[in-house]
Design a protein that fits this description.
By secondary structure, this protein is α/β, with parallel strands linked by helices. The chain is built from 8 helices and 10 strands. It has one domain: P-loop containing nucleotide triphosphate hydrolases (Rossmann fold). Bound molecules: adenosine-5'-triphosphate (ATP). Belongs to the ABC transporter superfamily.
């Protein structure tokens, strides 16, 4: 039986005494591509940080690749792009190539140095994100969108099994955004990489992901787009307008591609 990429049982998380995540239970399978949506302050980033072991949770249980998070060590299997990619120290003395290389070094056992083949992999990744020509520039000298692409390169260069992206396209121009989503689709469909994508772009989310996770402190909806679009519970909860916005684009894309 295949091992679940992620399993969460009855998770609760508090900041001080304020409950931010309540009774979260979910299972993510290999190859799932999940759009994580919800209003501002609904706990999306907090959930991601808890899943990455960056915040200690109060109650519940989390397993990654079948192992309890408490003893999990294979963090190199997970690529992560944090939300505030643009808040880079302008004096950070690393080039684009060096930042991207960090994502590859994390997955290496000793000796940890970059070989010729690694350099090719890094350059291919930079090229796929349209930033190969920036490879020798210092990260602090780049624009917000360029910096975001560099951090994306770092997150995906090690070919992770599980990719978690917190609003990855907020600083990208439309052309780069489309290229980026094509790249994610290829990683998901051809390499079966599991993806969680946090986004506020609900009008387009159905074009990219296969499942929707709607969070508002607790899970409001988690399932396929088909279920979301056909559910009368969803209509009651979100209103037919919001449901239509999400489902219309999904239908449109299915017709286009299918
Ligand atoms: N370090 C912190 N200390 C205390 N409260 C926090 C902290 N970080 C976030 N919160 C609170 O936790 C709640 C969830 O925040 P979180 O950033 O997870 O939401 P989000 O869904 O990612 O929001 P957004 O869509 O605006 O990015 C909010 O009420 C926020 O104010």
């Amino acid at each position: 039986m295949p091992i679940d990429v992620l399993s969460v049982e009855r998770l609760n998380f508090y900041y001080n005494s304020t409950e931010v995540l309540s009774g979260i239970s979910l299972v993510i399978h290999q190859g799932d591509y999940i759009g994580l949506v919800g209003p501002n302050g609904s706990g999306k980033t907090t959930l991601i940080k808890v899943l990455l072991g960056l915040l200690p949770f109060n109650h519940g249980r989390i397993s990654l690749f079948g192992q309890d998070i408490v003893s999990f060590k294979e963090w190199n299997r997970i690529g992560y792009l944090p939300q505030k990619a643009a808040s880079i120290n302008p004096r950070f003395p690393a080039t684009v190539m060096e930042i991207a290389a960090m994502g590859l070094l994390a997955s290496k056992t000793f000796p940890r140095y970059i070989r010729h083949r690694d350099r090719e992999i890094i350059e291919d990744t930079l090229k796929s994100l349209g930033i190969l020509d920036l490879r020798n520039r210092l990260i602090g000298e780049l624009s917000g969108g360029q910096q975001q692409r560099v951090l994306l390169a770092k997150a995906i260069v090690g070919n992770p099994d599980f990719l978690i992206l917190d609003e990855p396209t907020s600083a990208l121009d439309p052309h780069t955004r489309e290229r980026f989503f094509d790249l994610l689709r290829e990683m998901n469909e051809q390499r079966r990489i599991t993806i969680i994508l946090v986004t506020h772009d609900i009008a387009n989310i159905g074009r990219y992901s296969s499942k929707l996770l709607y969070l508002d402190k607790t899970i409001i909806f988690y399932g396929s787009f088909l279920d979301f679009c056909e559910s009368s519970d969803v209509t009651r909860l979100f209103g037919s307008f919001a449901q239509h916005i999400i489902c219309h684009r999904h239908d449109h894309n299915n017709r286009k591609t299918g």
